[in-house]
Amino acid sequence: MRTIEIFDTTLRDGEQSPGVNISTNEKVEIALQLEKLGVTRIEAGFAAASPGDQKSVAEVAKRVKNSTIVSLARAVKGDMDKAYEALRHAQNACLHVFLATSPIHREHKLRMSKEQVLEKAVEAVTYAKKYFTEVQFSAEDAARTEIDFLAEVVEAVIKAGATTVNIPDTVGYMTPYQYGNIFRELRQRVPGVEGIRLSCHCHDDLGMAVANSLAAVEAGATQVEGTINGIGERAGNAALEEVALALETRKDFYEATTKLNLKEIARTSQLVSRLTGMIVPGNKAVVGANAFAHESGIHQDGVLKEATTYEIIRPESVGFKSNKLVLGKHSGRHAFKEKLVELGYHLEQEEIDAAFASFKELCDKKKEISDDDILALVDGKMVRGTEMYRLESVQLSYGNLSVPTASVRLVRADGSTCEEAACGNGSVDSIYKAIDRATGEEVSLTDYKILSVTQGQDALGEVFVRLQQGDLTVTGRGVSTDVLEASAIAYVRAINKILERRGEALVAATS
Ligand SMILES: CC(=O)SCCNC(=O)CCNC(=O)[C@H](O)C(C)(C)COP(=O)(O)OP(=O)(O)OC[C@H]1O[C@@H](n2cnc3c(N)ncnc32)[C@H](O)[C@@H]1OP(=O)(O)O
Ligand SMILES: CC(C)C(=O)C(=O)O
Ligand SMILES: [Mg+2]
What is this structure's pTM? Predict the structure, then answer.
């Protein structure tokens, strides 16, 4: 049985999903969960992309001990230097340098000849090897590259010291048969290929990312790259949970498996979904809400008699399990903390205390507290850096014949308060106009979603907003039993993120 290594790029390619942007603290939270899931490599970001990305890679590198931390870099010395700086504290680090090799990219994007691409790839790997033992080279758009040239590049970068060579299907163009053949050819023709990791990286433009990754494994790939829930640029990347479950469930066929702790899959998927705002569709394989639900009578009858009639994966094997701890009004801090650990959180005492206080408040409003309630609560209370504003109160005057008017009171990081009122086209609009006035920020609301986190009349509502200010796009999430309060919390959080990006929150807190 071969062991396939898992390279997770949720924090890099996953964050390239349009509209997604994850703060440093959120990235650390996801990375710690990925470490628990047992991924071999975590691509924490693209350090040269922005100071924020460099900081995120560095923070993840400091906190994660059992997975190798990777930063992406172009074949540019400045990019590699920034990656080196960010990865200095990692227990195990890997530089991931890429350069496109396909004719389309060579001609139109890089404007380089084959010879120049070959020379630059070798030069980049040689430079990276001065600082890193582990260097991964990716031939971007490898799948649309002439096979002779691709083999030449792979051979040259191996000679220059690359320890992993990745063959991405950057634009999701391949069929499984074609993609597998590339790996077969490279295995046959490239000297030295048996001594390195050969990696696949698939995109889902034609819905074949997972099938292509599995075809690569069949043809000799030793590492699979992808993201949790398949998030990523355009249609996304190969969903790692699907790859892992396909290998596990069909190891009779693939004769390969991963070292993932599969029981952590549900938790990881939920965490990534919450922190990115990318909602997992109900029918999504492995982690969708319906993945283990049976609707029709004949199926229900079969499952009641013997689960394997209609279930090829046991829900418990991927971490969908029944509650062991039932929390309520009479629970104390120990049980609460235990529940947080069970749900996959690694919170500081300050964060636990804040979440526990809200939990007790919620107990007075709700009879039963479900895991989803706790997840929503904790997520809302996670301390994410210095927050410039906190919503203290929101009041609304509304009637079907009058103009809605809202007043809000915000508390600044230094303890001072600001209060404003405004009219709007609807309740939410008036709240948002009042917050704009109180903060003095001009932003555009580009997305607004309401979800019910839990069920019943006393359900928690979750609001997700996306705001734009100039080039900045941020998201915010708020949870409350009242959707208008949740709307206000989400909006204030998004504004805090804008301020954090502009560096103002930090200045305000330290001045
Ligand atoms: C397939 C992938 O997922 S690749 C990763 C994609 N991810 C990202 O691009 C996110 C992060 N990117 C960024 O923040 C920015 O693009 C930066 C900071 C890297 C570069 O920004 P800018 O200097 O403004 O350049 P811009 O993005 O407009 O253009 C990219 C430049 O890099 C060049 N380039 C692209 N890939 C590579 C590479 N692998 N090695 C060297 N140069 C490259 C392009 O040809 C272009 O060069 P040019 O300016 O001489 O025409
Ligand atoms: C940077 C590379 C590996 C990439 O994401 C791609 O080619 O899709
Ligand atoms: Mg990619």
Answer: 0.77
